[in-house]
Write a structure and sequence with these properties.
Two copies of one chain form a homodimer. Chain A is α/β, with parallel strands linked by helices. Chain A has 15 helices and 32 strands.
């Protein structure tokens, strides 16, 4: 009879816990031991900002499975407060430390899974370890912040970093009554987005009285004599704060792997093959600590998100059990919500594509309603679709709005997964009743706008060249819309008057047409083109303009 | 120089209006005339129930484009209150009647597009034309109903038909304060769903004090002496009503096509090829009046929905303009909402598959939360996924719930369009933040549940054989759940006690395991199977049970 397989798992959150549970389902005989240096077996780390904010009131809500449940239900041993300190690959052993007693001990493995996660980056500046400065990774971290809020009653917070966690924390601190200042190193919030798509996010933060300081970085933290903190930045600004949250990104916890001589990529993440196996054939790694192939660009990247971690855990376990399994790569699908706004993206941004040296792409913008305009309550969606010029393959999509944002990004995520083109999007048959969508859903419209470009029905004007263009700008909106704000130098010829006033337009000079959303200008472009004019469309119209030129 | 092409379009709603607008964008020279026997150029017919209910207050909201706008903006002539009475194919002329004057006249065409829509079915029973009995197709219809409600102050309504329109009307009449009785010929509401998936819909209607009479049909309408209506049914029931809505389906308006000798399918819809061309090469047809290929079953069917009509309009116009164009078929994606519940489906149901003689399929059920359980407000989703046993191809999906229903069906609609398998669903990378989804989204879970079956990790027990089975039913829920209700004859062995009590279970007799949702029973199945038991899972557990055996 075979010896039962002994599998050790380092890290009990997300990927690690999933590994253990699936392994048990596939192999009733295996000995499974889960190590975690924290006090819990498995907890919902994506819920932590909402626990701080009090949306989730009871800490027990965050505990997904206790060590008892693991033992009783799955016959899995969980050793919390036990840290794996080293891997002895030649002997297939790990060295662990019981944090309660300090005892060091060794455990043999047949297979080892590393799921240590990622650790918040701490700016290397003076004072970063002062009391009142917190990062958020674990339940104890969130407890500390809650306690600080409850006992100190802070009024002012500085959040360092305007990414997903930073903005979720910002919302939750505002919810607790704090005045929040956000300091972000880059010139935009939500660095995962292209800058013009981040503009509506900035506006929403500002209308919720969040002070934004972009393109600036913290240079020091000091303790004021009155007990508050003083945060100074490279630009010379200075903010008083009663609480600081560090949310400037994370770093994969690959030190253990590195020390054991496992291959680590240039991003700092553990390098794995398609079956999540590291450079040692007895060791697998999953989750925020690994680097993965980007499905669109083909580049190695870090994708510290729970969804991919779950899929990686399945793949690793299948591989350990001798099944065929392949992680297909990550596409970076992401969503985040604050102040009633939802921001989501999937696939590559223009920044990603440029970073990967890819230039055969085109972007279009649209701003449809979340559902049929004739039914009350529709909210604008700001969408950007990026596709390959050569064949129309969808490369990425970004969307911002109050309703229906994540639905469209999910649909587009599957389209990217299945290598769909913009022509497929034109043909999607999606749910339509007036309170849910439109006969032409925003996803269909995105496909149509893009396909119109590829079929040569419309040529697009490049937004980035607007300040330098010698083209005549024609605004085809109604006069009252034009009067309320327009692009400098544009002339106003409302669409309804275009047939009649066609004689006013020059035939030798290129014309760039725009309207509010891009639909009326599309009609105008088709009309003018068929009448022999050289004409381009400013994709997405005035709604796109203020994203580019705020 | 070429003569401009003369294109006549019959029917100005949805398909017809879209044809006209797109044709103008592609061909600035064409002469385009749009005929409609009604008073409007283009209106939002999917909004009519909500106009009756007062959700949409202003009738003008429903008017998408006026004849003036068509003329001014697009140089398109719209002849409302003009009915096309006949087609003279040999002379390429139509005969039209001006309904205001009664004048008959002829118009020549180079291309003719038929977009006449579908007409509500009227039961052929005595009294169906009595005052107070309405069907809902046009703005004047909805005006009549609104006026009847405002002037007569009806208290009781009977809605004939429990399909999409019937239930939307039911909700809107309840909203107006009426007590509604629904009479449906079939033994279930929402006939587009499989019966067990319609069960939560029935419950929701009943908790909103809607009286349901299924498996029954109206046999007569009479006028009571007191001015009310009396509705009697084949089963002998009788209801007093102050208002009756006929919503028992529609019939394609193919009489004009038939009279002209165009081919009509067995469903009664106009037969078209992939470019939406009828059997006459100068005549195209789109919308509710045509029959289309079902993308999943390959059968001809009627799909009277706005989304496919829009796509068909594009295809027809592209074909008229000499472009390559192909309607890929319809998959019947559909959504409808009432009383806070959303019902949606895409692709084939089991009924559809059986009707098409297809038996190589398997269905699984699941009941995940709409988002992560640890974040407040998650609502249960009832989902059914149908896939091909041979290769895992997704064939259809149905979902019912309060939140996130249409999102999952949209994702699955694209998956079906792109011929994805359940293995693809396991790997979908979808939006996850706790208020939007889960690290394993319901779509991922559906894929996993299905893939577990195809990989042989779980065998499913057939729900339909439950009453006859000789298997031992094991309920692995907790004792309090068992006590609150369980399947007759089941024994209770909670999952946590299964390892310890394994000796109590028989090795010779097949065991069917269930829990509340299907997840704990999956663990139990894996455990028992690896210990040598013959065991099957009742997919979706107790939540599925009450759909099958209400």
């Amino acid at each position: 009879m075979n010896q039962p397989k002994r599998v050790l798992i380092v890290g009990a959150v997300a990927g690690g816990a999933s590994c253990a549970a699936r392994l048990r389902r596939l192999d009733e005989q295996a000995e499974i031991v889960l190590f975690d240096r924290g006090p819990f077996a498995s907890f919902a780390n994506c819920g932590l900002p909402y626990y701080v904010g009090g949306v989730i009131e009871d800490e027990r809500q965050l505990l997904l499975a206790s060590p008892d449940l693991f033992r009783q239900r799955f016959n899995i041993e969980v050793r919390t407060r036990n840290e794996v300190a080293a891997i002895d690959r030649s002997r297939c052993e790990i060295e662990a430390r019981d944090l309660a007693t300090g005892r060091l001990y060794r455990e043999r493995y047949d297979a080892l899974v590393l799921s240590p996660g990622a650790t918040p980056l701490r700016p290397q500046v003076p004072g970063v370890d002062l009391p009142g400065i917190f990062a958020l990774r674990t339940i104890p971290d969130s407890r500390d912040i809650r306690e600080w809020i409850q006992t100190r009653r802070p009024a002012r917070a500085v959040v360092v970093g305007a990414g997903l966690i930073g903005l979720e924390m910002t919302e939750n601190l505002v919810r607790r009554g704090l005045q929040v200042t956000v300091v972000e190193r880059l010139p935009q919030v939500m660095p995962a987005l292209d800058p013009e798509m981040a503009e509506p996010v900035s506006r929403r933060l500002e209308t919720n009285r969040v002070a934004l300081h972009l393109d600036d970085a913290v240079s020091a933290f000091e303790a004021d004599p009155n007990g508050a903190l003083r945060v100074t930045t490279h630009s010379g600004r200075s903010f008083a704060a009663d609480l600081v949250i560090l949310a400037a990104g994370t770093r994969p916890e690959s030190d253990l792997a590195k020390a054991a001589g496992l291959e680590v990529g240039s991003s700092g993440g553990i390098r794995v093959d398609e079956s999540m196996r590291t450079s040692d054939p007895r060791i697998w790694a999953v989750g925020d600590a690994v680097e993965v192939r980007d499905l669109v660009t083909g580049q190695w990247r870090l994708v510290p998100l729970a969804g991919p971690a779950q899929r990686q855990a399945r793949v690793a376990v299948d591989s350990i059990c001798g099944r065929e399994a392949r992680f297909r790569g990550a596409q970076g699908t992401m969503v985040c919500g604050f102040f009633g706004l939802t921001v989501a993206l999937t696939g590559a941004t223009e920044k990603d594509l440029r970073g990967a040296g890819i230039s055969d792409y085109q972007a279009v913008y649209l701003h449809p309603g979340s559902h049929a305009g004739y039914y009350p309550g529709a909210k604008p969606l700001h969408m950007k679709l990026i596709f390959r010029r050569g064949d129309g393959r969808i490369l990425g999509a970004q969307a911002v709005g109050e309703e229906g944002v994540e639905k469209r990004i999910d649909v587009l995520a599957v389209a990217i997964q299945k290598q769909a083109t913009v022509f497929d999007l034109e043909e999607c048959e999606l749910c339509y009743a007036p309170q849910y969508g439109a006969a032409k859903d925003p996803v269909n419209l995105a496909g149509m706008v893009a396909a119109n470009v590829l079929r040569g029905d419309v040529q697009l004007a490049p937004w980035e060249e607007l300040p330098q263009t010698v083209a005549l700008l024609v605004d085809v909106r109604d006069p009252d819309e034009f009067a309320a704000g327009h692009i400098d130098g544009a002339v106003n010829v409302p669409l309804g008057e275009l047939r009649r006033r066609i004689g006013e337009l020059p035939r030798e000079r290129e014309i760039w047409v725009y309207c509010e959303l891009g639909q009326r200008s599309y009609y105008a472009v088709r009309f003018l083109r068929q009448n022999g004019f050289q004409v381009r469309n400013l994709s997405g119209g005035y709604q796109t303009y203020w994203g580019w030129y705020p």
